[in-house]
């Protein structure tokens, strides 16, 4: 369950006008999940369905994410799911560098508060944001997907795993197999760290 600090941030996000996406959005989409989650998943930006429901990953990509979670016996309500930007870019275009930079504070605060054991980045925007945060040099998503990065922070070890965005599997079934493989890697890490 979300506690006071993240709930308060949700309200800030819904009222945020820090970047131009606030002009075109119908509603912002804060992160979702328990504040003590072991795993945080980070996507790119909300789509139309997410904006409509005010929840992350509830459209077609969300169905694929749910399938991937089920494939490794991970319940959706035990993980935290968020996006690099919390408002939908018009016509689902990529978020700009400026929009990502403006929204960055929210993502940093979510991660600081939750302090997860594992972060799984979904797609290249989230991968780039997290690699930058932890000072890792990023290759392409095709090169980096499924790799495991251990980061020492505040006396704790964080594991970072970049994977493809679930939306990539909508039009390319081969990517689904790759995602399933990378989620098995996630399962192994969670079992090892238990
Ligand atoms: S995308 Fe982020 S920074 Fe931009 S208006 Fe929405 S919440 Fe604010």
Which term fits the overall shape? globular
Query: How many helices does DSSP assign?
Result: 9
Question: Radius of gyration, Cα only, in angstroms?
Answer: 15 Å
Summarize model confidence as the mean pLDDT: 95
Low-confidence parts lasting 5 or more residues at pLDDT below 50? none
Overall helicity: 40-55%
Major beta-sheet overview = 5 strands, mixed
Describe the structure.
The chain has 194 residues and is of the alpha/beta class. It has one domain (4-192): Uracil-DNA Glycosylase, subunit E (3-Layer(aba) Sandwich), CATH 3.40.470. Helices cover 46% and strands 14% of the residues. The chain has 9 helices and 5 strands. The protein has helices at 4-15, 21-24, 48-53, 60-71, 97-114, 124-133, 141-144, 168-171, 173-192, and strands spanning 39-43, 80-83, 118-122, 149-153, 156-163. The protein has a 5-stranded mixed β-sheet, with helices on both faces. Helix 1 (4-15) packs antiparallel against helix 5 (97-114). The protein is globular. The model has no long low-confidence stretch (mean pLDDT 95). Iron/sulfur cluster (SF4) binds at residues 13, 16-19, 21-22, 28, 85-87, 99, 102-103.
């Amino acid at each position: 369950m979300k506690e006071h600090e993240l709930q308060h941030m949700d309200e800030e996000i819904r009222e945020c006008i820090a970047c131009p996406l606030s002009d075109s959005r119908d509603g912002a989409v804060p992160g979702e999940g328990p504040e003590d989650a072991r795993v945080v998943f980070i996507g790119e930006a909300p789509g139309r369905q997410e904006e409509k429901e005010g929840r992350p990953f509830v459209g077609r990509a969300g169905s694929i994410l749910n399938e991937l979670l089920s494939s490794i016996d991970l319940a959706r309500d035990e993980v935290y799911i968020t996006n690099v930007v919390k408002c939908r870019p018009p016509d689902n275009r990529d978020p700009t560098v400026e929009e990502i930079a403006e929204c960055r504070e929210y993502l940093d605060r979510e991660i600081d508060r939750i302090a997860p054991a594992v972060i799984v980045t979904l797609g290249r925007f989230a991968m780039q944001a997290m690699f930058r945060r932890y000072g890792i040099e990023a290759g392409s998503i095709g090169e980096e997907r499924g790799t495991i990065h251990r980061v020492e922070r505040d006396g704790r070890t964080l594991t970072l795993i970049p994977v493809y965005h679930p939306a990539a599997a909508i039009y390319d079934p081969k990517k689904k197999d790759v995602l399933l493989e990378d989620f098995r890697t996630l399962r192994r890490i969670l079992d090892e760290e238990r």
